[in-house]
Amino acid sequence: MQVLSDKELSIVFEYMTQHNQVADMQASLATAPKGGENRGRNDRNDRGGDRNRNDRSDRNGQQGQRRDNRDGGRNDRNDRNDRNGRPGDRGPRNDRNDRNDRGQQNRQGGQNQHNNQAPKSGSQNNQQAQQPANRPTSRVPEKKLVDTRKGGNVNLDKYDEHLETLAPERANRMQSGKQKIQSRNNHRKGATFGNKRRQEEQEKMRKLQLEIAKKTPLTVKIPDEIGVGELASRMKKTGAEVVKQLMKLGVMASLSEIIDYDTAALVAMELGCKVEKEVIVTIEEKLIDTAEDKEEDLVPRAPVVVVMGHVDHGKTSLLDYIRNSQVAEGEAGGITQHIGAYQVDVNGSPITFLDTPGHEAFTAMRARGAMITDIAILVVAADDGIMPQTVESINHAKAAEIPIIVAINKMDKPEANPERVKQQLTEYGLVSEEWGGDTICCPISAKTGMGVDNLLEMVVLTAEMRELKANPNRSAHGAVIEARLDKGRGPVATLLVQNGTLHQGDVIIAGTAVGRVRAMTDAKGRKINEAGPSVPVEITGMGEVPGAGDDFHAVADERMARELVEQRKHENKMAANSSSQKVTLDDLFSQIQQGELKDLNIIVKADVQGSAEAVKASLEKLTNEEVRVRVIHCAVGAINESDVMLASTSNAIIVGFNVRPDANAKDTAARSKVDMRMYRVIYDCINEMEAAMKGMLAPKFKEVSLGAAEVREVYKITGAGIIAGCYITEGKVQRNAQIRLVRDGIVVHEGTISSLQRFKDAVKEVAQGYECGIGIEKYSDIKVGDVIEAFIMEQIEV
To answer: Distance between CA atoms of 773 and 715, rounded to whole angstroms?
Structure first.
């Protein structure tokens, strides 16, 4: 192949630049293909021809291989054979040839020539002569590589690897989006500036959120009562702000005090908060259905009757007659002795009798809040009249606010006098219907059965007048009449269903006992599956023995019922540890001020009836607009245990006039913390009660014994009077103490010490084992052998 001269090359270059004009300058200035491709492979065809990659001779000359250029469209570089020591292989080139080589492109459709063997001199010159004719017509400016290396062997693989690792990273960085340009100063500061800016952004966002939260009103849930500090924390305000707002409303309260819902709601609204009422639902409210029954759901129920009266007035005989007559008939509601309640049928109307005849049991049940009786039958013997226990029964029934039907028993006796009984009943507020009152009096004879049917009819009539109704279509609740522990069956309880229907298998909770009804029997002993209102039943299956008088409820969730039982046990334990607060004269006025007391109940016991009536009338006159004095029981005789029980259940004060409590009454009063006051003068009683009601109760004092001295000699000194020469046998004697002169075990004088000396010195006190001289003020009847007891009066802190 002939090598073109410089002139011929100039002509070819001119021709190609004039007839191959560049159409798109942007395409010509485009960047070269990415590095990192495998060298030695054919390039892809780029619209009719890729740029030729000329081989670069190996600098070592030992292997004789040539390497392609890293860039796809890089211009051909002449090999420098001088370094290999092979002269004559290099073709003639000048500057124009170099420019021609850079501007021409290969026309051969993109095939790159790759020589694996070391080229010879002639073939290399021929290839260099053909290269200008093989270049494409488009001119793309490419990177210019200037080799300034003059000599030496350089490992280029090291640099190629560095390029391959950098190029993909830079390409990915360019594809990720906008490049963040940072100055050198930022590069020097490192990540500190980024963290600071991030903190500033977070602070701005926090302030923005706070502003939004301030603009949005805070919703505060407030219960019925709440502490001032708790209210401030819920509103996210300081305690000072809340106290300041309370002062604006005229309420002076500290952070620890409790305020009601209305005051707390006003404060919250004034401070820009929305108020919602917080309803606290307890386990008992969730578990026990206490909804009121609708009028259309109620049906009539049988009355529950209790029989009370004096022990010897035929109360038990009346119950026996009713039971025996019904058993003889063998109809309607069988009666058994072991159950505590039973039913009889009177002309199709059932009546439930409770076999708790004693007034003491009735009081105990009322103390537990079990108002399960509707009517009380008061049995009075026609030959004896009103007895003390009869009066107590009347008072118990009145306290329970139930109607009383008087059964005048023993009318078969010749000495029976019913009119005298009626006259005595009027003294206690029970006026017979025959005398214009509203109390039903039925003359009966429990022995012969006279008037018993009329008595039962009166009970039914009274029940109809009261319109006793219940809803059988709901969960059962009622009261426990009695309970016991059976060896074979375990805890056995007698229940009286007051409302709803009790089914076998129901889960019931009674006080602190919970269980499932495994077996249920009626008063006749027959097994039944359900019991409606006013029906007494005996059940088994309780976990423990419930208390008599406890309320029972049939519930649906046994697990929640056991939680409630544990809660009640804990409350009972806490209540037992903390002393129960009873009414005493010392704190009576404070309770009146707090609005806790409206009625002051008093039980009066006196030695004679006249005194009792006088004390009762005098105390009832003390009633004012703040407190009403109620004498719930007035009787003659010593204070007994029954009086203390009545006072405990009624929260009353016992006033004794010339009487003393017996030993059992003292113990019961100490356990129940019942206040008992004893008086000998009626004016002291009235004045003390009035002072207590007005908050002017004088402080109480107690006697503190100091010591005792024995009189061994009596001296008469001019100007000083009678002086007792004494020996201190126990304790000490102080000059400011009061003394009691005791002679043969009898107090003969009480007074004060006028002088106390040892030898010739006046002293303040003399201790045990020393002798002294004692002078008693305004008293001179001192004898040898007398005992002088020294004591002081200390005020009792209330």
So the answer is: 9
How remote is the C-alpha of 364 from its chain's centroid?
A: 31
CA 146 to chain centre: 88
**Beta strand extents in 347-416 (DSSP E only):** 349-354, 375-381, 404-409
Give the single-character DSSP code of 681.
S
Give phi and psi for 326, each to the nearest 5: -70, -35
pTM of the model: 0.47
3-state DSSP percent of the chain in helix, strand and coil, to 5: 35, 25, 40
What pLDDT band is residue 503 in, cutting at 50, 70 and 90?
A: very high
Would you state the pLDDT for residue 786? 92
3-state SS class at 683: helix
Rounded Cα distance between 9 and 100, Å, is: 8
Q: How many CB atoms lie within 10 A of CB 33?
A: 17
Helix (H, G, I), strand (E, B) or coil at 399: helix
Mean pLDDT on 670-676: 89
**Structure-token pair, residue 670:** 């100490």
Query: How far is residue 106's CA from residue 574's CA, in Å, rounded to a whole number?
Result: 106
**Exposure on the CB side of residue 576, measured as CA atoms within 13 A:** 6
DSSP letter at 146 equals -
Find where tokens 């919703």 sit: 219
Cα 682 from Cα 614, distance rounded (Å)? 9
Determine the length of the chain: 798
Share of the chain above pLDDT 90, in %: 13
Q: Which amino acid is at 153?
A: N
CA atoms of 180 and 625, how far apart (whole Å):
88
Strand partners, 705: 791
Collapsing DSSP to helix, strand or coil, 14 comes out as helix
Contacts of 706 (CB under 8 A, 6+ apart): 731, 732, 733, 734, 737, 790, 791, 792
Cα separation of 719 and 354, whole Å? Answer: 82
Is residue 70 within 8 Å of residue 41, measured between CB atoms?
A: no
- Could you tell me the pLDDT band of residue 424, with boundaries at 50, 70 and 90? confident
Are 291 and 362 contacting, i.e. CB atoms less than 8 angstroms apart? no
- Please check the confidence at residue 611 and state whether its pLDDT lies above 50: yes
In angstroms, how far is CA 203 from the centroid of its own chain? 39
Tell me if 333 sits within 8 A of 342, measured CB to CB: yes
Angle, to 10 degrees, between the axis of helix 228-235 and the axis of helix 239-248?
A: 110
Strands (E), 166-311: 218-222, 225-227, 258-260, 273-277, 299-300, 304-309
pLDDT band at 13 (very low <50, low <70, confident <90, very high): confident
Neighbours of 548 (CB within 10 A): 21
- Residue 16 DSSP symbol: H
* Chain center to CA of 368: 25
Q: For residue 158, what pLDDT is reported?
A: 64
DSSP codes, 410-471: -TTSTT--HHHHHHHHHTTT--BGGGTSSBEEEE-BTTTTBTHHHHHHHHHHHHHHHT-EE-
Contact 413, 378 (CB under 8 A): no
d(CA 447, CA 412): 8
**Does residue 181 carry a pLDDT above 90?**
no
Q: Residue with structure tokens 């909804």?
A: 291
∠ CA(104), CA(105), CA(107), 5° rounding? 125
Give me the sign of the Cα torsion angle 455, 460, 465, 468: positive
The residues pairing with 738 across neighbouring beta strands, listed in sequence order, are 752, 791
What pLDDT is recorded for position 184?
53
**Strand order through the sheet with 676-679:** 628-636, 599-606, 652-657, 676-679
Contacting residues for 571 by C-beta, under 8 A, at least 6 apart: none
The CA–CA distances, whole Å, from 283 to 93, 448, 515, 560 equal 106, 55, 17, 7
Q: How far is CA 738 from CA 430, 651, 735, in A?
A: 55, 39, 8
Rounded mean pLDDT of 715-744? 89
